[in-house]
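Training component of the fellowship. As part of building independent skills, the fellow (R.M.) carried out the full modelling exercise for a liganded target. The chosen ligand was iron/sulfur cluster. The inputs are recorded below so that the supervisory panel can assess the work.
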Amino acid sequence: MSPISYPKNPNSSKNGKIYRSACRMCHGGCSALVHVNNSKVVKIKGDPEFPLNRGKLCVKGMASIDQLYNPNRLKHPLKRVGQRGEGKWKQISWDEALDAIVNKIQEIKEEFGVESIAIGQGTGRHHYRHVVRFAHALGTPNWCEPGAAQCFHPRINAGGITYGDLPICDYYGDVNPACLLVWGHNPLVTGPDGETQFKVRDCIKRGTKLIVVDPRETETAKKADIWLQIRPGTDDALALSMIHVITQEGIYDRDFVNEWTVGFDQLAERVRSCTPEWAEKITWIPADKIKESARLFANTRPASVEWGVAIEHTPNCFQTVRAVALLPGITGNIDIPGGWILGMRVIDDIPILLDNLTDEMKEKRLGADRYKLLSGRNAPFPSAHIPTLMKAIRTGKPYPVKAFLNFGNNTLATYANAKQAYETLLRLDFLSVMDLYMTPTAELADIVLPAASWLEVDEVVGLPFRSYNFALIQQKVIQIGECRQDEEVLIDLARRLNLAVGIESLEDLYNTQLKKLGITFDELKEKGFLSVPMRYRKFEERGFNTPSGKVELYSSIMEKYGYDPLPYYQEPPESPLSTPELAQDYPLILTTGGRTPYYFHSEYRQIPSLREKHPAPLVEINPRTADELDIRDGEWVWIQTVRGRIKQRARLAKGIHPRVVHIEHGWWFPEEPGPEHGIWNSNANILTNNAPPYDPAMGTYQLRALLCKIYKVDG
Ligand SMILES: Nc1nc2c(c(=O)[nH]1)N[C@H]1C(S)=C(S)[C@@H](COP(=O)(O)OP(=O)(O)OC[C@H]3O[C@@H](n4cnc5c(=O)[nH]c(N)nc54)[C@H](O)[C@@H]3O)O[C@H]1N2
Ligand SMILES: Nc1nc2c(c(=O)[nH]1)N[C@H]1C(S)=C(S)[C@@H](COP(=O)(O)OP(=O)(O)OC[C@H]3O[C@@H](n4cnc5c(=O)[nH]c(N)nc54)[C@H](O)[C@@H]3O)O[C@H]1N2
Ligand code: SF4
Ligand SMILES: [Mo]
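Fellow's submitted model of the complex:
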């Protein structure tokens, strides 16, 4: 561990040491100065030197010490002693715990085959690629996470097949985006990289024209020049109609389109009938506003798209994401200063050892035969399809899945159809859960492992995500109980299993990652962070990394897999238009999971400084609707879909459409008695749907754009 020499801090020697590290209370990326005195973390401040957060931390980052020393944290490995889910535990050693897992893996592998072992995790936390790496080193194709089909991978894949890489907004050079189209995203609060919020804030302050597509008037929408209040789940129609305006009015970038794209004519033909008047009926957005937005976007340069997860939570997810992705392409905003830029990649990713799987094993991945871009043999970052995997656990078909090793996912809180997820986990022969806390999911396990928080973790953080022109240090500054970082445990398991690969030390892996920069992990600890200046129009040197070397408006990869190469509109499967009968009983449109600043998915309800600021789950309803239903602000109400009902507290908000309801996701109540800890009270995923239809390419299920009703809780 190496303290940084930080000249602007005169007290650093008197009050102990100061370490530079990356906050990871969200997906992370803010540089923090961690003050350690007498082996205790006493203070954490934003790092004024780091260009992405410039001294700032958000409210979660500021609660890091409360997380570190939270009395409810798991500190030792535990073994179940009662019935599964009874909540009776015995403390065991790491050796005992890992041997138990290893023995179970060997046993199942011999009896059923290695594919009968599933490996799970959550969204992109520090250990993300290491979990995938371990699965592939072990030889199972069945790893999964609740974000893959539902989060970011659709954007990464759409970026990949269209532009050869995921484009991101350029806040990193001298030129600011002059127009920002924010789509299904609330970047002042959330995002794939938390630190982006500070860049977006600065960008907006400098006068960037802002268009926001959101059913709710969020903090970001409040600052917009044009706010498009969309009916949830109809983003495909809106994007197609904007492409219609731009192509029909000839306000696209002719030079760029001619020289650097393929399929423009087919695209223009596809959207010919998608007029703003057509889209108005579907999206509830006035046609004039659609025209105005399309013109503003096309006529302002540079323009960029800042998109979020809301467009990835419906079964037409991939075509929706593709449609939005084409807007910066046809307007020539690709890889230019202030536009939608392609990555620099100063560091290499941790290898996921995909080649360790045979082709036969890749074909066996649950979902591989159907969802080619999620699970297929040649999918860019293949994962199992969760509903197919869950079904295999329950039914043994197409083959049995007996064990689930879970590294950082509260399955009952974040998988769709939580009741079914619960029944599924109970059917397993073996469940291990690694987490910081005893969650309702961990309560169902055979073995529970105590995980480290970010202050106990070594890592190289590449930023902004996928672009990586910064490499930032994250370093372990403290040890809590027997907690370990997941990566160490995964390597330990691989070694105990005598695997041929996936057994290098963490330090070796990090040194390899940094090789391009010519420094070692230890040197990065000294330096803190490194960056390289952005380079633009890189495609002029080497083309785009697509089959044609151009921007594929018409996607040859989609065509190859038998999917529509051009985006199209599809009504959400549960909606006033597709299920009008159901809509009579469930007249309101439900959307879930808009993030709050205080929580990260199901995390942090046990941290007092955060919980005090947001003590209960909130359902947002328009005052007019509330009035009709005799619901008052702050009152607990039932929210019900065909799949079940939950309670949240009403928040009356004028900025939500009278026919739309928004609920928060991730809620459980750590203070309530185990093993359930209130997981069935307010959990959004009791209401969501993991039944077909799924997105044809990505297998996405429905977390948003559903039908519901709400009513008062009697008494
Ligand atoms: N504080 C905090 N930060 C987080 C997270 C967290 O839990 N808490 N989670 C992280 C993760 S994994 C993710 S994926 C990102 C997500 O962060 P974002 O991508 O910003 O997504 P959300 O906040 O879920 O939703 C953004 C907006 O979409 C709107 N919306 C809902 N339905 C629709 C729709 O059908 N169409 C459109 N256009 N908009 C809709 C919501 O009203 C909401 O304001 O945040 C990451 N950062
Ligand atoms: N209804 C609805 N459901 C959703 C969403 C929505 O918008 N609406 N969003 C979806 C999206 S976009 C995503 S990405 C997923 C997110 O889903 P997940 O990322 O799986 O989130 P959680 O279920 O909160 O599980 C995270 C668990 O990991 C633990 N943890 C935190 N850090 C570590 C660590 O370093 N190591 C280990 N071992 N454990 C750790 C936490 O304590 C927590 O219990 O949820 C999805 N679910
Ligand atoms: S935005 Fe994320 S990385 Fe930055 S301080 Fe907040 S939680 Fe930490
Ligand atoms: Mo996500």
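The panel noted the following from the submitted structure. The longest helix spans residues 94-112. The first strand starts at residue 17 and ends at 23.
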